[in-house]
Automatic annotation (TrEMBL):
Name this polypeptide is given: RNA polymerase sigma-B factor
InterPro entries associated with the record: RNA_pol_sigma-70_dom, RNA_pol_sigma70, RNA_pol_sigma70_r2, RNA_pol_sigma70_r4, RNA_pol_sigma_r2, RNA_pol_sigma_r3/r4-like, WH-like_DNA-bd_sf
Protein keywords: DNA-binding, Sigma factor, Transcription, Transcription regulation
Sequence ranges assigned to domain RNA polymerase sigma-70 region in this UniProt record: 74-140, 242-288
Any one Gene Ontology BP term: DNA-templated transcription initiation
Record GO terms (molecular function): DNA binding; sigma factor activity
Highest classification ranks of the organism: Bacteria, Bacillati, Actinomycetota, Actinomycetes, Propionibacteriales
Composition-biased stretches (Basic and acidic residues): 35-46
Membrane spanning residue stretches: none
Region (Disordered): 1-46
């Protein structure tokens, strides 16, 4: 079977792999849509079984059997494409995922035995497995254990589902309960998320500052007294304990995780300017707190400059 030709077949609108969730407010029109989708799925399944049965009929020529398998792939392309779209928020190009999913569909058609029951019950795990294998083999910058890679896929899907249901970001405990895993394993899977690494030369998103994620602080070379530096860092840590949880979270995203202000704004659903102003306010408090306890040694002055990492934003007209 020519997988490349099948991969380029146009996708039709018939059926989806996922059934729509029906809530208490479902309309009659929505019910009709679900019934129509179920009817289409049933017809597609019946046609699939008929074609695959014919594809195993020795009375047909090899070309005729191949044509039956090609038709099975074509009428089930919406299933593969729908499964591919489940993974589109994980840093990989959707078109590439669709190609991988369609290859999984071809493999499912070649390996399926009609005596084993419904085609979809075999095809869906086969296609999903092909997509997960693609992520495992090609999309991890730092490759964690396979157990965490597979758990991360479940966690990511659960977070999307829970966020849609709750209207807010779910906690690790809620995700763990949703997928039936330990909370510690869920947290480890989230921390292992490393589909893409950021280049040290990546812009931090601030045109006025012209900074990059890997830029060296101007006062770093002045720090030559490790004991005094350690003492000062303890003072900074102590000052951070007096910040609110939201303020510490903002610092962690910006400095511990090296996130840009734009990406932080997207996660917190606020403007980039709000992120900048909040960081300025927090760092001013930290500078004042550290300066009042650390004196005026060269190391202290250097560390104070390192805390002062948020540039002033140009005033808007």
């Amino acid at each position: 079977m020519n997988a490349a030709a099948v991969a380029n077949e146009p996708t039709h609108a018939a059926g989806q792999a996922d059934s729509s969730r029906q809530g208490p407010g479902t309309t009659k029109r929505g019910n009709r849509h679900v019934q129509r989708s179920e009817s289409e799925n049933a017809r597609r399944e019946q046609r699939t079984i008929e074609l695959l049965t014919s594809a195993r009929d020795d009375r047909l020529t090899a070309a005729e059997r191949q044509r039956c398998r090609d038709l099975v792939v074509k009428i089930n392309l919406p299933i593969a494409d729908s499964l591919a779209r489940r993974y589109r928020s994980r840093g990989e190009n959707l078109e590439d995922l669709i190609q991988v999913a369609r290859l999984g569909l071809v493999n499912a058609v070649l390996r399926y035995d009609p005596a084993n029951g419904a085609f979809l019950s075999f095809a869906v795990p086969t296609i999903s497995g092909e997509i997960k294998r693609h992520f495992r083999d090609h999309c991890w910058t730092v490759r964690p254990p396979r157990r965490l890679q597979e758990l991360h896929s479940e966690v990511a899907s659960a977070m999307v589902d829970l966020a849609q249901d709750k209207g807010s970001t779910p906690t690790a405990a809620e995700v763990a309960d949703w997928i039936g895993a330990d909370r510690a394993d869920v947290l480890e899977a989230i921390r292992s998320n490393a589909f893409h690494s950021a280049s040290l030369d990546t812009s931090d998103g601030l045109a006025a500052a012209s900074g990059t994620l890997g830029a060296t602080d101007a006062g770093f070379d002045e720090v030559d007294d490790s004991m005094e530096r350690s003492d000062l860092m303890r003072r900074v840590d102590d000052a951070c304990t007096r910040l609110s949880n939201d303020e510490r979270r903002l610092l962690r995203l910006r400095f511990a995780q090296g996130r840009t202000q734009s990406s932080i704004a997207d996660e917190l659903n606020i403007s980039q300017m709000s992120v900048s102003r909040r960081l300025q306010k927090i760092t001013r408090r930290l500078r004042a707190d550290v300066a009042g306890r650390a004196g005026t040694s060269p190391v202290a002055r250097s560390m104070q400059r390192r805390v002062n990492v948020v540039p002033q934003q140009p005033a808007r007209a």
